[in-house]
Design goal:
- With 162 residues, the protein is of the alpha/beta class.
- It has 6 helices and 6 strands; from the N terminus they run βαβααββαββαα.
- The strands form 2 sheets. It has a 4-stranded parallel β-sheet with strand order 1-2-3-5.
- Helix 4 (84-97) crosses helix 6 (125-140).
Length: 162
């Protein structure tokens, strides 16, 4: 059996020292993986505990430097709320700098209010996730720089709706 640890990258433990201590202890105890959750921007009504969290990819990039063997992953990254090209680059960078220890877990999200805060259409989140995954796979499969084969509308290209 394989066991992992979901890091409390939110509320009271979502700070540098607790994150390092938990990550290093999990590695010392032989856990297979560390996982972070993701919330980008929560409205005040849903803030606790979701709004006071460390950004998941940045947290994992930092913890890659504080650990040596344990795998790192997102549980889950709300993909339709993020720029697909930036995510592809961030994840590839973490994977490379961690020595190949990164796993990307993605989801479509559950909070309609969070999507509204960011100006992204909640009803099309599944299709957006599929489009984002297609672009990410294309980018990861190519060593070329320059034009990529990106299809579909990027909902984040215009910025948040006002």
């Amino acid at each position: 059996m394989i066991f992992g640890v979901v890091l409390p990258n939110f509320v009271g433990l979502g700070h540098r020292e607790p994150m390092v201590r938990i990550a290093q202890t999990a590695e010392e105890l032989g856990f297979a993986s560390l996982w972070t959750s993701d919330q980008v921007l929560m409205p005040a009504a849903l803030f606790d505990p979701y709004g006071d969290n460390l950004e998941c990819l940045t947290t994992l990039a930092f913890l890659a430097c504080c650990t040596h063997r344990i795998r790192l992953g997102t549980s889950i990254l709300i993909l339709p709320l993020r720029d697909r090209v930036i995510v592809a680059k961030q994840v590839a960078t973490i994977h490379e700098l961690s020595g190949g220890r990164f796993t990307l877990g993605v989801g479509v999200g559950w909070s309609e209010a969070e999507f509204q805060c960011l100006g992204v259409d909640f009803d099309t989140r599944s299709q957006l996730t599929d489009q984002h995954l297609d672009v990410i796979r294309t980018l990861w499969g190519s060593r070329r720089t320059g034009r990529s084969r990106c299809h579909g509308r990027n909902p984040l290209a215009r910025g948040p709706r006002r």
